[in-house]
Amino acid sequence: MSCKPVGKARLTFGLGRGMKLYVPILLFAVVFTQALRSPISIVFLWFTVSIPVLSFFYALIMRANVGAFVMSDETTVEKLTEISYEFRVSNYSFLPLPFAEAEIYLPSDDGVACVCRNVSLSVLPRGEYYFKSDVTFRYRGSYLVGVGSVYVSDMFRLFRLRRKVNIYSKIYVMPRKMIFSRGDDNSPSDTPTDSKLTRDGSVSSEANLIREYRVGDQLKHIHWKLSSKLGDLQVNDYKPNAGKNVYVFCDFATIFPSGGQSSARHTRDKNSARENDEKKRVRISIPARPAESMMTTEEKLDAISEAAADRAAAAAAVAAGRAKLDGAEAEEPVPAAADKDAETSASDPLDRANDIKSEALYDLDAYCADGVSELAIGVVMSEIGRGNRVILMWFDERADSGFFAYEVTSYADIDSLFRNFGTAPFCAHEMSVTRLPSLVSDADSPTHIYVTSAASLDNLSDYIDASHGAGAERTEVLLFNPRERFADQSLRMQYLEKCRVRYGENNIAFTPVDESWMSAAE
User: Fold this and answer.
1) In angstroms, rounded to a whole number, what is the distance separating the alpha carbons of residues 92 and 128?
2) What is the mean pLDDT of the chain?
3) 220, 78: one domain
4) CA dist 88 to 57, 384, 507, Å?
5) Is 219 exposed, middle or buried (0-12, 13-18, 19+ CB in 10 A)?
6) I want to staple 171 with a disulfide (CB 3.0 to 4.6 A). Which of 40, 143, 386, 522 is the partner?
7) Is residue 467 part of a domain?
8) pLDDT tens for residues 247-257?
9) Residue 35 CB partners (closer than 8 Å, separation 6+)
10) Same domain, 208 and 328
11) Lowest-confidence pick of 83-92, 216-225, 278-287, 469-478
């Protein structure tokens, strides 16, 4: 949810409820005057005619003297943490405001989103309507609380005038930070490399190899001898990444296309996605804080695609050569899931494995995006702990280039990007996370980690093409699985196991993850 722009107050004219009663009274006054033709009837007629004029000017005065106030412009809080908010609607005039209605944006009862409610209120002269409450938001994101417009009516409710105030407090709800631990044996980036720089001569004389301690540095890297001499903590500086480049691609795409869908099982339109990719490349520019290897122009993106094809062919040739050296015959390449898994026929019981409960659809996108963001941050923290250089990427409409790419080498770097990442909006369903690798170039055989809630047998070929095209040495798909929301959980588990096997056949680690990992991390 994004903040609405604040503009000048704009007059919107409308007739109030009292006009239904006023019209019969006016007709009666006309008939009464014509029938009696007395001074009293004429006075009554003029009085009746003057009421709308006086009422209109009264409403104009009150509209000009109504305003709103919020507690603060913005607040940052971790999700599931109680937060207080307050706002006021004030009457600055010396006249009473008997009839008014305010469009108030309040958190929903379940803390999922902010909804607009119309609240009727009356405010005394120089008085105010005060509203304060506490709320706990369930999902990360940005939320608006405040007043959009105030509708003012006169004493007789003949006219209704709107004043747009657009006074909001923006609440940033952050995901939690918890390290996602898979164990060294399961981590795709856990390869034996020596990331420490070679040191010649005296360590204390190599000033560029020693630096001051920063938050997040491991204690085992502290140079105790030099620290005691200088009286300040110093650490051995390690190469940020020697052959360990880890790309974490985060998926904030909506689960279903914009038209909606009653079942979670769907097939992506690959041709349309590729066409959109080509159009997107034309307007991609340098992202905020890009990684050094980021390629941004259309010509460079074409060069990346050609180089990726060469790398994929070279990798296949090397694999075949190694197999022959070991005395084994080169195996036939495993067919992509899109071809091999047309085997899921209409009679397959797993066809209903991805059906979502109808009552769980209303906040499914928010729930999955929340889980994906926490899982991605956990993965980034885990990879930093292994001494890797991490590039976190996601599609984001707030970026001029259409996506963000942040280089992360320490926990302090996470803090600098945390609000931007933690409040990332949804992107279109067609913006598949598998399209992000085509926007980078890395010649050092990087590791690719996809954090998504939409991986399936239907789009396995997309992950295969993305990894091979970018020359990834290792690939892992971390699937955030909203387990409790599926209609048949046993069928869902069977389906995930089938996905794990099929992805594994294509040298892609497939790891389903639900919210239970958070309890273990805590």
Assistant:
1) 9
2) 76
3) no
4) 25, 46, 59
5) exposed
6) 143
7) yes
8) 999 999 998 88
9) 41
10) no
11) 278-287
